Protein backbone atom coordinates (compact mmCIF):
# COMPACT_ATOMS: atom_id res chain seq x y z
CA UNK A 1 0.00 0.00 0.00
CA UNK A 2 2.81 2.41 0.93
CA UNK A 3 4.71 1.69 -2.27
CA UNK A 4 1.63 1.69 -4.49
CA UNK A 5 2.68 -1.73 -5.66
CA UNK A 6 0.38 -4.22 -7.31
CA UNK A 7 2.06 -7.62 -7.18
CA UNK A 8 1.34 -10.12 -9.89
CA UNK A 9 2.22 -13.65 -8.70
CA UNK A 10 3.08 -16.19 -11.40
CA UNK A 11 3.25 -19.97 -11.07
CA UNK A 12 6.71 -21.50 -10.79
CA UNK A 13 7.86 -24.24 -13.12
CA UNK A 14 8.87 -27.46 -11.38
CA UNK A 15 12.57 -26.46 -11.45
CA UNK A 16 11.71 -23.35 -9.42
CA UNK A 17 12.07 -20.81 -12.21
CA UNK A 18 9.39 -18.45 -13.44
CA UNK A 19 9.25 -19.28 -17.15
CA UNK A 20 10.40 -16.14 -18.94
CA UNK A 21 7.78 -16.41 -21.68
CA UNK A 22 5.14 -16.37 -18.92
CA UNK A 23 6.87 -13.38 -17.30
CA UNK A 24 6.97 -11.54 -20.62
CA UNK A 25 3.31 -12.29 -21.32
CA UNK A 26 2.42 -10.78 -17.92
CA UNK A 27 4.03 -7.41 -18.74
CA UNK A 28 1.10 -5.02 -18.99
CA UNK A 29 0.64 -2.90 -22.10
CA UNK A 30 1.18 0.86 -21.81
CA UNK A 31 -2.45 1.60 -21.03
CA UNK A 32 -3.91 3.84 -18.31
CA UNK A 33 -6.14 0.96 -17.19
CA UNK A 34 -3.18 -1.06 -16.01
CA UNK A 35 -0.49 -0.71 -13.37
CA UNK A 36 2.90 -0.09 -14.99
CA UNK A 37 5.05 -3.22 -14.95
CA UNK A 38 8.35 -2.15 -13.45
CA UNK A 39 10.05 -4.93 -11.56
CA UNK A 40 10.66 -8.66 -11.76
CA UNK A 41 11.28 -10.34 -8.39
CA UNK A 42 12.87 -13.77 -8.21
CA UNK A 43 13.60 -15.97 -5.20
CA UNK A 44 16.83 -17.99 -4.91
CA UNK A 45 16.88 -20.60 -3.52
CA UNK A 46 13.23 -21.40 -4.04
CA UNK A 47 12.03 -24.31 -1.89
CA UNK A 48 15.73 -24.99 -1.54
CA UNK A 49 16.37 -25.08 -5.29
CA UNK A 50 19.19 -22.94 -6.66
CA UNK A 51 18.24 -21.14 -9.86
CA UNK A 52 20.30 -22.10 -12.92
CA UNK A 53 22.90 -19.40 -13.64
CA UNK A 54 22.01 -19.21 -17.33
CA UNK A 55 18.37 -18.64 -16.34
CA UNK A 56 19.46 -15.61 -14.30
CA UNK A 57 21.36 -14.22 -17.29
CA UNK A 58 18.28 -14.73 -19.48
CA UNK A 59 16.08 -12.99 -16.89
CA UNK A 60 18.51 -10.05 -16.85
CA UNK A 61 18.39 -9.86 -20.65
CA UNK A 62 14.58 -9.85 -20.59
CA UNK A 63 14.52 -7.07 -17.99
CA UNK A 64 17.01 -5.01 -20.01
CA UNK A 65 14.98 -5.51 -23.18
CA UNK A 66 11.66 -4.60 -21.51
CA UNK A 67 12.90 -1.88 -19.16
CA UNK A 68 12.26 -3.73 -15.89
CA UNK A 69 14.27 -3.68 -12.67
CA UNK A 70 15.32 -7.07 -11.33
CA UNK A 71 15.18 -7.87 -7.58
CA UNK A 72 16.34 -11.01 -5.84
CA UNK A 73 14.75 -12.32 -2.68
CA UNK A 74 18.00 -14.00 -1.73
CA UNK A 75 17.01 -15.03 1.78
CA UNK A 76 19.06 -18.18 1.04
CA UNK A 77 21.39 -16.75 -1.59
CA UNK A 78 24.49 -18.20 0.10
CA UNK A 79 22.97 -21.70 0.05
CA UNK A 80 22.58 -21.32 -3.72
CA UNK A 81 26.16 -20.11 -4.21
CA UNK A 82 27.64 -22.89 -2.07
CA UNK A 83 25.52 -25.56 -3.79
CA UNK A 84 26.54 -24.29 -7.23
CA UNK A 85 30.18 -23.83 -6.24
CA UNK A 86 30.30 -20.22 -7.41
CA UNK A 87 31.10 -16.95 -5.64
CA UNK A 88 27.91 -15.23 -4.53
CA UNK A 89 28.78 -12.41 -6.94
CA UNK A 90 28.12 -14.71 -9.90
CA UNK A 91 24.47 -14.81 -8.81
CA UNK A 92 24.06 -11.29 -7.41
CA UNK A 93 25.59 -9.49 -10.42
CA UNK A 94 22.43 -10.01 -12.48
CA UNK A 95 20.24 -8.06 -10.05
CA UNK A 96 19.60 -4.40 -9.30
CA UNK A 97 18.80 -5.19 -5.68
CA UNK A 98 19.21 -8.23 -3.45
CA UNK A 99 17.90 -9.05 0.02
CA UNK A 100 19.75 -11.63 2.11
CA UNK A 101 18.92 -13.21 5.48
CA UNK A 102 21.86 -13.38 7.87
CA UNK A 103 19.93 -15.51 10.32
CA UNK A 104 18.46 -18.77 8.98
CA UNK A 105 21.26 -20.93 7.59
CA UNK A 106 24.05 -18.42 8.27
CA UNK A 107 23.18 -18.52 11.96
CA UNK A 108 23.26 -14.86 13.02
CA UNK A 109 20.71 -14.25 15.79
CA UNK A 110 18.68 -11.80 13.70
CA UNK A 111 18.99 -9.74 10.61
CA UNK A 112 18.57 -9.24 6.90
CA UNK A 113 20.27 -6.80 4.56
CA UNK A 114 19.20 -5.06 1.39
CA UNK A 115 21.95 -4.60 -1.20
CA UNK A 116 21.93 -2.28 -4.17
CA UNK A 117 23.39 0.92 -5.55
CA UNK A 118 24.13 3.77 -3.13
CA UNK A 119 21.10 5.61 -4.53
CA UNK A 120 18.82 2.62 -4.00
CA UNK A 121 20.05 2.08 -0.44
CA UNK A 122 19.57 5.78 0.36
CA UNK A 123 15.99 5.51 -0.85
CA UNK A 124 15.50 2.29 1.12
CA UNK A 125 16.75 3.98 4.30
CA UNK A 126 14.10 6.65 3.81
CA UNK A 127 11.40 3.99 3.37
CA UNK A 128 12.68 2.14 6.39
CA UNK A 129 12.19 5.31 8.43
CA UNK A 130 8.71 5.83 6.98
CA UNK A 131 7.71 2.32 8.02
CA UNK A 132 9.25 2.61 11.48
CA UNK A 133 11.94 0.03 10.75
CA UNK A 134 14.95 1.97 11.99
CA UNK A 135 16.95 0.38 14.79
CA UNK A 136 19.53 2.13 16.97
CA UNK A 137 22.42 0.42 18.73
CA UNK A 138 22.20 -2.31 16.11
CA UNK A 139 25.99 -2.65 15.87
CA UNK A 140 26.05 -5.62 18.21
CA UNK A 141 23.73 -7.43 15.82
CA UNK A 142 25.81 -6.31 12.84
CA UNK A 143 28.90 -7.77 14.53
CA UNK A 144 27.17 -11.13 14.79
CA UNK A 145 26.19 -10.87 11.13
CA UNK A 146 29.80 -10.12 10.13
CA UNK A 147 30.90 -13.17 12.09
CA UNK A 148 28.33 -15.25 10.18
CA UNK A 149 29.60 -13.92 6.84
CA UNK A 150 33.22 -14.61 7.79
CA UNK A 151 32.73 -18.06 9.30
CA UNK A 152 29.41 -19.64 8.34
CA UNK A 153 29.26 -19.55 4.56
CA UNK A 154 31.41 -22.52 3.44
CA UNK A 155 29.92 -24.63 6.20
CA UNK A 156 26.50 -24.44 4.52
CA UNK A 157 27.78 -27.41 2.50
CA UNK A 158 27.57 -29.44 5.73
CA UNK A 159 23.87 -28.51 6.05
CA UNK A 160 23.28 -29.62 2.46
CA UNK A 161 25.05 -32.89 3.19
CA UNK A 162 22.97 -33.44 6.34
CA UNK A 163 19.78 -32.67 4.42
CA UNK A 164 20.71 -35.37 1.88
CA UNK A 165 21.44 -37.81 4.72
CA UNK A 166 18.17 -36.92 6.47
CA UNK A 167 16.24 -37.49 3.24
CA UNK A 168 17.92 -40.87 2.75
CA UNK A 169 17.36 -41.92 6.37
CA UNK A 170 13.68 -40.96 6.32
CA UNK A 171 13.20 -42.72 2.97
CA UNK A 172 14.77 -45.83 4.49
CA UNK A 173 12.16 -45.64 7.27
CA UNK A 174 9.45 -45.66 4.59
CA UNK A 175 8.65 -41.95 4.93
CA UNK A 176 7.51 -40.35 1.68
CA UNK A 177 10.25 -37.84 0.88
CA UNK A 178 8.94 -35.58 -1.88
CA UNK A 179 12.06 -33.50 -2.40
CA UNK A 180 15.47 -32.49 -1.08
CA UNK A 181 17.38 -29.46 -2.27
CA UNK A 182 20.28 -27.71 -0.52
CA UNK A 183 19.31 -27.53 3.19
CA UNK A 184 15.65 -28.52 2.84
CA UNK A 185 13.83 -31.82 2.97
CA UNK A 186 10.15 -32.07 2.08
CA UNK A 187 8.06 -34.97 3.29
CA UNK A 188 4.47 -36.02 2.97
CA UNK A 189 2.85 -37.78 5.92
CA UNK A 190 -0.70 -39.03 6.28
CA UNK A 191 -2.70 -35.90 7.17
CA UNK A 192 -4.63 -37.87 9.81
CA UNK A 193 -1.46 -38.85 11.68
CA UNK A 194 0.26 -35.45 11.55
CA UNK A 195 -0.88 -34.37 15.01
CA UNK A 196 0.30 -37.61 16.64
CA UNK A 197 3.66 -37.36 14.80
CA UNK A 198 4.14 -33.81 16.08
CA UNK A 199 3.33 -35.00 19.62
CA UNK A 200 5.63 -38.01 19.36
CA UNK A 201 8.54 -35.92 18.07
CA UNK A 202 7.96 -33.26 20.72
CA UNK A 203 8.41 -35.94 23.41
CA UNK A 204 11.88 -36.58 21.91
CA UNK A 205 12.65 -32.85 22.00
CA UNK A 206 12.11 -32.31 18.27
CA UNK A 207 9.63 -29.61 17.44
CA UNK A 208 7.86 -29.86 14.08
CA UNK A 209 5.51 -27.26 12.68
CA UNK A 210 3.08 -29.14 10.49
CA UNK A 211 2.16 -27.67 7.14
CA UNK A 212 -1.20 -28.17 5.51
CA UNK A 213 -2.40 -31.61 4.43
CA UNK A 214 0.47 -33.52 5.97
CA UNK A 215 3.21 -31.64 4.12
CA UNK A 216 6.29 -30.99 6.23
CA UNK A 217 9.46 -29.02 5.48
CA UNK A 218 12.59 -29.92 7.45
CA UNK A 219 15.37 -27.34 7.30
CA UNK A 220 19.01 -27.84 8.29
CA UNK A 221 21.06 -24.97 9.69
CA UNK A 222 23.99 -24.01 11.91
CA UNK A 223 22.36 -25.29 15.09
CA UNK A 224 21.60 -28.80 13.84
CA UNK A 225 24.65 -31.05 14.13
CA UNK A 226 25.09 -34.77 13.49
CA UNK A 227 23.80 -35.63 16.95
CA UNK A 228 20.69 -33.53 16.28
CA UNK A 229 20.19 -35.25 12.95
CA UNK A 230 20.44 -38.64 14.63
CA UNK A 231 17.93 -37.57 17.27
CA UNK A 232 15.40 -36.68 14.56
CA UNK A 233 15.87 -39.95 12.68
CA UNK A 234 15.81 -42.09 15.84
CA UNK A 235 12.68 -40.37 17.09
CA UNK A 236 10.96 -40.77 13.72
CA UNK A 237 11.92 -44.45 13.62
CA UNK A 238 10.05 -44.91 16.89
CA UNK A 239 6.84 -43.40 15.52
CA UNK A 240 3.94 -45.82 15.08
CA UNK A 241 1.46 -43.61 13.29
C1 LIG B 1 12.77 -15.37 5.75
C2 LIG B 1 12.49 -14.97 4.36
C3 LIG B 1 12.30 -13.62 4.03
C4 LIG B 1 12.26 -12.51 5.05
O1 LIG B 1 13.36 -12.43 5.84
P1 LIG B 1 13.45 -11.29 6.94
O2 LIG B 1 14.57 -11.77 7.80
O3 LIG B 1 12.14 -11.24 7.62
O4 LIG B 1 13.76 -10.06 6.20
C5 LIG B 1 12.11 -13.30 2.72
N1 LIG B 1 12.09 -14.25 1.76
C6 LIG B 1 12.26 -15.55 2.03
C7 LIG B 1 12.22 -16.55 0.92
C8 LIG B 1 12.45 -15.96 3.33
O5 LIG B 1 12.61 -17.26 3.60
UniProtKB/TrEMBL annotation:
The keyword Disulfide bond does not apply. Its cofactor is pyridoxal 5'-phosphate. Signal peptide: none annotated. The keyword Hydrolase does not apply. Keywords: Aminotransferase, Pyridoxal phosphate, Transferase. Residues 2-190 form the Aromatic amino acid beta-eliminating lyase/threonine aldolase domain. GO terms for molecular function: transaminase activity. Belongs to the threonine aldolase family. Homotetramer. This is Aminotransferase class I/II-fold pyridoxal phosphate-dependent enzyme. The lineage of its organism: Bacteria, Pseudomonadati, Pseudomonadota, Gammaproteobacteria, Lysobacterales.
Amino acid sequence: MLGGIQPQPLAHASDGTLPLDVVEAAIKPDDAHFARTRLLCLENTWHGRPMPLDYLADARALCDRRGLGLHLDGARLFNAAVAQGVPVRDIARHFDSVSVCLSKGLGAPVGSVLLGSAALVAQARRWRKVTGGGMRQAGILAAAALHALDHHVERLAADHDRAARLAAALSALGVEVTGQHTNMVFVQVAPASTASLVEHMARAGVRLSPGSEGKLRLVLHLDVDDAGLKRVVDAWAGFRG
